Target: Non-specific lipid-transfer protein
Amino acid sequence: MKGATVAMLAMIAMALLMVHHTEAISCGDLANMISPCLGYLQSGGSPTKQCCDGARKVQGATHSQADRRTACNCAKSAAGQFKVRQDTASNLPGKCGISTSIPINPNVDCNSIP
Model:
């Protein structure tokens, strides 16, 4: 019986070690990643390398539906607060050579993002 208990505890410990605990992305995380883009998003022109690197980080950090919806809501909120131009925001992924499944549109229903 003692051997079975030890084996069970070992299996539970291995299962806990195999589970990857991940935290959901926050608006603060997203703001830090995309902050190098603020000048471009407000004024246009060409995004800097640091901006595109940040946009790639956002792309890499939004794999789950919850993260994409959070990113959408954060972006909508920040866009109005920081007076982001719609055209520059929409053009950013293409100018940085990335694609995104998050619609860049102030009228999008973030809860509808798959």
